[in-house]
Every structure is written in structure tokens, then in C-alpha cells.
């Protein structure tokens, strides 16, 4: 189908244009699009003619670890490889300045930690993720990871800031709230459409609330984005 084909085209292009014989440590994101990155990486690693020497793949979630292991790639810990050559990850929304909303898959805390340790962050996505402002295409709120004991206090603080929020529930997979790989909860926060400076301003308002661990607002982190289009082409964005 068009969306899966777009994800695959974007991912294959990103891997082929950003992984070469000098690439040693790769960050692997989370979600459904990055699956195609791992697929392409595994193909190239297994190719006897490829000169790839991938030393380690650093995961951004339990799912990402599974992808690395199942692909036969070398699973590594961020503390063992605190400098990553390039990380490939998905996004829920991408604006024209490569600001992102991430966390739709509930993994944005570890994704941001790996991204921050990477020399390059390359985003892969299908055409549904492209937007002229954060909050326009992605209407499910800004994912915010919070410490469980304080989630109601944090919700009240968000209301005092003029926003609203919803605790992300796990049903039907599991009764009760989603619990992240780090043992925290997720609030999906509604603060309106974020244009220009509002992205950073909103992040700063949220991150200083006691008990907020990390927001899904990524600004000045992604250097490249590969967008698979409906016509089969790939749109390349670079900062
Ligand atoms: O949670 C995340 O940030 C993921 O990258 C995710 O939202 C992107 O997921 P997708 O590639 O399945 O759309």
C-alpha cells in the first residue's frame, strides 16, 4: 500500500545515503518506519561485496532492541557507545524547520537520549508526517513522559498554563495506563498549534514542571528528513 511503500522508499534512501564504510556506531529508532531502515541495513551488512564495518547498534526502546537482535545486528548499550555516528528514527510530525513531534509510539525519552548522543539524526517518514506547523497533522497531543507519582499534579500545572492533557491508556492491550520502557507514564498534552518560537517556548514551559521527564518536541536535533511521497518519490529535507 502507498504508506508502507513510502516508508520503505524513504528508509532505503536514508540508509544508502548515510551509511558507508566509515560508519561504525548506528542508533536505531522506534516505530514502524524504522523497521525498513533495519531491513536495508541488514541487507547491506550481509552483502559480501559491501565494505560495511558496523561495530554497534544502539537501541531507543525495547522494540528497537528486538529489531536489532532479530536482524542479527550487534546490540550495544548507549553507555558503552556514548558517541553515535548516525541515528535513524521516525517521527509523528515534521515541520519545515525539521522540528518534530515524536513519542506517538511512547519511546521519545530514550529516542531523545540517543539522538542527543548522535553526530547525525536522520528522520524517515511517509508523506502523512509532513506539516507546516506542529499540531496541524498530528492532533493527538504532545507526548510528555512523566513520573507516575506526580501525573495529576502535572496535569493541574498544565491546565494553569492554559493547556489540557490526557493520561495515555494502554487498553485494549492492557488495563490501566501505558508504562514506558523507563517505568514512567505518558501525558498527551494539548497546547495548540506550535509555530516558530512556540515550539521551544512550549518545550521549556513543560520541561520545567517538576516530574516532567521529557517532551516529544525535538527542535534543532534532526539534520535530515527523508519523506516517502504518494507518487513513489522521496523528498529530502536538510537543515
Ligand atoms: O514514537 C516515536 O517517536 C516513533 O518514532 C513513532 O512515533 C514514529 O512511528 P511510525 O514510524 O510508526 O509512524
UniProtKB/TrEMBL annotation:
Keyword Isomerase: yes
Keywords carried by this UniProt record: Isomerase
InterPro entries in the cross-refs: NagB/RpiA_transferase-like (IPR037171), Ribose5P_isomerase_typA_subgr (IPR020672), Ribose5P_isomerase_type_A (IPR004788)
Gene Ontology molecular-function annotations: ribose-5-phosphate isomerase activity
Organism: Chytriomyces confervae
EC number: 5.3.1.6
Signal peptide (from-to): none
Metabolic or biological pathway, per its Swiss-Prot or TrEMBL entry: Carbohydrate degradation; pentose phosphate pathway; D-ribose 5-phosphate from D-ribulose 5-phosphate (non-oxidative stage): step 1/1
Record-given protein name: Ribose-5-phosphate isomerase
Keyword Transcription regulation: no
Listed GO CC annotations: cytoplasm
PANTHER family: RIBOSE-5-PHOSPHATE ISOMERASE
Reaction(s) this enzyme catalyzes, per UniProt: aldehydo-D-ribose 5-phosphate = D-ribulose 5-phosphate
Xref: Pfam families: Rib_5-P_isom_A
Protein family according to the UniProt entry: Belongs to the ribose 5-phosphate isomerase family.
A GO BP entry: pentose-phosphate shunt, non-oxidative branch
Amino acid at each position: 500500500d502507498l504508506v508502507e511503500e513510502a516508508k520503505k522508499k524513504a528508509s532505503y534512501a536514508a540508509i544508502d545515503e548515510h551509511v558507508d564504510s566509515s560508519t561504525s556506531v548506528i542508533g536505531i529508532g522506534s516505530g514502524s518506519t524504522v523497521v525498513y531502515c533495519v531491513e536495508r541495513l541488514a541487507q547491506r551488512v550481509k552483502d559480501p561485496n559491501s565494505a560495511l564495518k558496523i561495530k554497534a547498534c544502539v537501541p531507543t526502546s525495547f522494540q528497537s532492541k528486538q529489531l536489532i537482535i532479530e536482524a542479527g545486528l550487534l546490540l550495544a548499550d548507549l553507555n558503552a557507545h556514548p558517541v553515535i555516528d548516525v541515528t535513524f528514527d521516525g517521527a509523528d510530525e515534521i515541520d519545515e524547520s525539521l522540528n518534530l513531534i515524536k513519542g506517538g509510539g511512547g519511546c521519545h525519552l530514550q529516542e531523545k537520549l540517543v539522538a542527543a548522543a548522535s553526530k547525525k539524526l536522520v528522520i524517515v517518514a511517509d508523506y502523512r508526517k509532513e506539516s507546516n506547523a506542529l499540531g496541524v497533522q498530528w492532533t493527538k497531543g504532545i507526548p510528555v513522559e512523566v513520573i507516575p507519582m506526580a501525573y495529576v499534579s502535572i496535569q493541574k500545572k498544565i491546565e494553569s498554563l492554559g493547556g489540557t492533557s490526557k493520561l495515555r491508556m494502554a487498553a485494549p492491550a492492557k488495563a490501566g495506563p501505558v508504562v514506558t520502557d523507563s517505568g514512567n507514564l505518558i501525558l498527551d498534552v494539548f497546547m495548540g498549534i506550535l509555530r516558530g518560537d512556540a515550539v521551544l517556548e512550549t518545550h521549556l514551559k513543560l520541561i520545567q514542571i517538576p516530574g516532567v521527564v521529557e517532551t516529544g518536541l525535538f527542535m534543532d536535533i534532526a539534520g535530515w528528513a527523508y519523506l516517502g511521497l504518494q507518487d513513489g518519490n522521496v523528498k529530502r529535507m536538510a537543515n
